[in-house]
Amino acid sequence: xxxxxxxxxxxxxxxxxxxxxxxxxxxxxxxxxxxxxxxxxxxxxxxxxxxxxxxxxxxxxxxxxxxxxxxxxxxxxxxxxxxxxxxxxxxxxxxxxxxxxxxxxxxxxxxxxxxxxxxxxxxxxxxxxxxxxxxxxxxxxxxxxxxxxxxxxxxxxxxxxxxxxxxxxxxxxxxxxxxxxxxxxxxxxxxxxxxxxxxxxxxxxxxxxxxxxxxx
Amino acid sequence: xxxxxxxxxxxxxxxxxxxxxxxxxxxxxxxxxxxxxxxxxxxxxxxxxxxxxxxxxxxxxxxxxxxxxxxxxxxxxxxxxxxxxxxxxxxxxxxxxxxxxxxxxxxxxxxxxxxxxxxxxxxxxxxxxxxxxxxxxxxxxxxxxxxxxxxxxxxxxxxxxxxxxxxxxxxxxxxxxxxxxxxxxxxxxxxxxxxxxxxxxxxxxxxxxxxxxxxx
Lengths: 216, 216
Description:
Chains A, B: It holds the Pfam family Maf. 2 copies of one chain form a homodimer. The first copy, chain A, is an alpha/beta fold.
């Protein structure tokens, strides 16, 4: 799928339009060398304009990747691949993004415990060197959804977790790879998607792009 | 559950009767300080004597924890808690353990791709200072099962993975946290269980032991 092509891909300039250290770690885990160029897109889309939380995450991912792709790259520096991603937590129709402060994190986590929620990651892949008939850059985007079930935990447990500083900068105020992993009774879907990037779906997409020659 | 007690538990001598670096990492992730004392139990139980792969893993975990608990600990050194664990992969009724060599890893991985398999981890918790009426050490044991679905990948992909050296020392010849994570379409259950230790179920058990006073 992708492991057999890692060596070939190491000659490509792959740009991750995200500052998330978890996403970078996921790429490193499979041996893929990427360059991090955080997107300057403001992530201010109007949620009410989207039919679903997944559609919102997908469009945000697309805007992030587009902003980085459209920069004034010199011909020698132009990325072969730009990857955008956005992760949101959805609980009973509401979107939870990153908590503003400790009180906000406490409210988010209190709403998640004892419940099942969905984690959606939108991914956009842009190949800046390939342009369609309409002049648009070659783009693929998709979303991946994982269901996560939290056990019921006490308020003092939630506060002990907030004290670790972990909730900040994370959608839904938690990171499954850290201490909050202990609360997760079960997940259904891709684990890496909950960490912030749907590794399998991305690998399958890249394998398809290699096969059809859009990536060399 | 367990995070609110991590400080209290840091005064306890917690011994992990396993040399697995993945298990150690899982404990470190939740901030729990443990001492690694690999068990000398030979892991040679007769599989045909067990009603299920899960029962086999549970008994192996118990024997690992028992061997470490029964050592000649000095009174000042006796562990408060000894944890044993054993992970097996089950595919259509067959148990896959660690691969012997590259050919064995290739055979295991070739059988797993495009299929759904079960990962069972048996866990045993022994409190050496607590003895029942029958003179037996206080023991809790359980198993956790996660279903893992692999995508279909090519033989060259499998060989590229074996070349990384990752399959060796791992039940079923793969580690979900490394490059083979890209092959995993979905899991159902606890992710950490696939890594080698069912974090949530363990945390819930320890919380119960703290509540009933068996752990201080």
